[in-house]
Hints:
The structure holds 2 protein chains of 2 kinds.
Chain A: H1 2-35, E1 38-39, E2 47-48, H2 52-59, H3 62-94, H4 100-112, H5 115-125, H6 132-139, H7 154-164, H8 167-178, H9 182-190, H10 195-223, H11 227-232, H12 244-253, H13 258-286
Antiparallel strand pairs in A: 1-2
Helix pairs in contact in A: 3-7, 3-8, 3-10, 3-12, 4-8, 8-10, 9-10, 10-13, 12-13
Chain B: H1 3-38, H2 42-45, H3 60-68, H4 71-102, H5 108-117, H6 123-136, H7 144-147, H8 155-165, H9 171-178, H10 183-194, H11 196-212, H12 215-220, H13 229-239, H14 244-264, H15 266-279
Amino acid sequence: MRIRKETLWGWILVSPLALGLTIWVAFPLGVALSTSLFQWNMISRPSFIGFENYAFMLFGDHLFWQAIKVTLLFTLTSVPLQMLIAFAAALLLNANAKGQGLFRTIFYLPALIPTMVSTALWLFLYNPQYGLFNLLLDKLGLPTSTWLRDSGMVIPSLVLMSLWSIGNVVVIFLAGLQGIPRELEEACIIDGGSWRHRMRAVILPQMSPIVFYNLVMGIIGGLQTFTQPYIMTNGGPSNASLTLMLHLYKQAFQFSKMGYANALAVVLLLMTIAVSLMVFRSSRSWVYYEGERK
Amino acid sequence: MSAALRSKRITNRFLLYLALCLGALFCLLPFAWQLRSSIMTMPEIFSYPPKLWPAAPQWKNYLDVFSILPFGRYYANTAVLVAWNIVGVLFSNISIAFALTRLRFRGRNLLFALSVGTLMIPTTVTLIPTFIEWSALGGLNTFLPLIVPSFFGNAFFIFLLVQFFRTIPFDFDEAALIDGASYPRIMLQIIMPMARPIVAVMLIFTFLGVWNDFMGPLMYLNDSKLYTLALGLKSLLSSYNSYWQVLMAASTLVVLPLLVVFFIGQKSFIAGLTMGGIKG
């Protein structure tokens, strides 16, 4: 009797989740997969065209390949740089120094800023005539740049901007560093290990699961980059910052090509899975788990 | 301590502080620029070579924000969305996580695994189908698409709560059951009060998430009466793109409430960030 009550309440209480997974995940995934086989502008009736959307993507849409290139270039440069710099910042913030509370807050602040706000702000910072960066470069006697208006500089500019708001990753790394058992580091110091030694033998192995988590999350986020190029360059100049997500958005909401946009979404999903799998695969050789838990 | 060792230590200290200060400078400089530009006159913004600081601070730029576009309304709209999302988050996640950890029934492990699995799916993929769903339901140009999903549980919050509930001993539940308490009562009177730290995390993350959301409002809200702050900023940027002083003042106004919430809830906030990252 009691067991039945428990089951009953269990199902009542989780029903929003079960419903939510159906309405907001399973059904949309199904719609994405099926409408990717249709031509549909949301007004007239969808017409079935088989794999034509995918064929057009691979062989007819040169912007698709450009978007793939831009997305991979941005993700594969910004995410590793973010990891490296966030790790260095976390080490600095974990060092024994005065005013660390203040430094930690300052390092975190940019991550708090809504993407829309930071995008508007950086658009101004990058302004060739009135922006801060060219002013600084000019004062230092260095050559200035046209930043977002230069097709060779636009991705580096977006990468630099992404490095400004890595506070979330820094905080997670910092907490990880603080969680490293003191005995391990002390043992290393007593054995006369240098800083470099401590890094290789203790800190990096202990931190590897956290690096892994942030790497996967960073990649998933990086592959979906949208707001920055949408607001700052609308994909330009000459499509040098057209990310896959921006391409998808334009196809869906500017050209009403819902079927094609969904085919792009499916490809984005496959790409995310592929890259994540690659990281998971490689993780076996560099991620260290305490006593191989479970 | 030998002189050589001592001088090496001093150099290291110096380098450490230097690096910290450079990092802080990189983080703060854009804010300084934003503040500086927000109190300039337009000719000052466009003077060449650029000026570092205005001759006289133009605080009226902040008032101009409200006369150029109805930013007061955008504030109210965003606040309404935040409030409803908080209601939804509190209504759904605690009871879901309670059932997933404290009640035994068939399918619960599968359900939890599926829920965590959705964290790996790029939100992009379901974006257009969800848009199609809402357009079929007549939800375009209403707040519904930005509110209703919060009532169905959030995978990240469920994950945090489940991790937390698993640390609470079952003795509490058993004692209460023997005393004749019902399951909802155990949830409301015993487990929920203990979840307070996670509830704080959920409140802050929900606030920040809604305040910062750009894609959602961009897709669903066309009527400028319904605009959120993020959309207001975007329309300011596209229709008044040379009014940098007003744009920077508006940006500051959007950020201010975030700073307040951040400083009030800093502890819970950091806790939430690291819980997801370290136990994941």
